[in-house]
Amino acid sequence: MSYEEAKKRYEALGVDVEAAMEKLKTVPVSLHCWQGDDVRGFDTDPSKPLTGGIQTTGNYLGRARTPEELMADIDKVLSLIPGTPKMNLHASYAIFEDGEWADRDKLEPKHFKKWVEFCKERGLGCDFNPTFFSHPKCDPLTLSSPNEETRKFWIEHGKACIRISNYLAEELGQPCTMNIWTGDGYKDVPADRMGPRVRYRESIDEILSEPYDFKKVKPCVESKVFGIGVEAYTVGSAEFALSYAAANKEKCIPLMDNGHYHPTEVVSDKIPALLAFFPEIALHITRPIRWDSDHVVLFDDETKEIAKEIVRCGGLDGRVDIALDYFDASINRISAWVTGYRNVQKALLSALLTPAEALKELQDTDQFTELMVRQEELKTMPFGEIWDEYCRRCGKPADGEWFPQIKEYEQKVLVNRK
Ligand code: RNT
Ligand code: ZN
Q1: Residues 6+ apart with CB under 8 A from 140
Q2: What residues are in contact with ligand 1 under a 6 Å CB criterion?
Q3: Which among 170, 300, 310, 312 has the fewest CB atoms less than 10 Å away?
Q4: Local confidence band at 134 (pLDDT 50, 70, 90 cut-offs)
Q5: pTM above 0.90, yes or no
Q6: What pairs with residue 116 in β-bridges?
């Protein structure tokens, strides 16, 4: 079937295919720098294991070891993904020059100058994240630590990150979401669950006392249900993060990571629930599988459902900030990046090609038999043709055309990274 024929099939359902593709082209989706080097960053000893409730597994060849390698890999990714990517950096990816080094509480905008140049040359915006893990000052708690010196250190880190986020927003002319996630928690049953949460709340208050323009810098609070090594208790639980954001709507927004809930809970359903109260929310799109929350995003049912909710709740008009968050060290890392990014694009395009108004009308008039039939029939529409056309229009390879380029890059570049 040709694109024109596929387009006609969608038009028969009342879908404007051209408008769907045009819309998607303009929507920023953040690409997480940390998929390229197994979340190691450049500011600590790369031979030390990750700590703080997250872990990568696998030892596939070609991990980026330097800013130059990481940027080269990101360039490869950028050449293979359609849409409007935005960078997403962690503070641990600071780039130090001339033998200089600064601890996390002393980071400055200048340590991200190289990244700003990188983004400017490619017309990208940039999001940011303080890094509250994989550092000797995790005791193991950070912002919720009972040790005042530890807590102060991490508050100073958070404030430094507000200043850096502001710099990124100013330089790149796009808002910067700044996500606060800590892996603070305990491996086993704690004796005090309240104390750490009160300290965490106070610490975020202190970080957000650093001045910023909320239209440009958007601090987020991300929750989690448990982490590796912190199975019994997570300080920043769902209720904690959501309550914090609800109580501080004028200065921060909630962030949901769909790997961070109990297995039968779905973020697709939480999106409209939050949008009924918050003008803006942020997402980390990932794939939870058993006890891991960070597998490569697939074009699966929940990813599609999340995209549908984003689209029909008006999320593409600035109400939902979309970012990817996963890390797989067991396969080609660039392919992992590209696969997940393209799948999020696919899910969004597929959602934009849904006759949402007509389906809603069936629901509102209690025509549930027909609603089921129509929703099921949508699943076998000729989506692939529209997707290929969208890729072509973005000047990016269609399915079937990009993987050979990854193999070539692996043979030419990645194998030499011994
Ligand atoms: C971890 C959180 C967090 C991190 C990144 C690296 O479970 O999802 O967002 O993945 O900050
Ligand atoms: Zn996340």
Answers
A1: 51, 52, 184, 230
A2: 34, 39, 54, 129, 181, 222, 224, 257, 284, 293, 325
A3: 300
A4: very high
A5: yes
A6: none
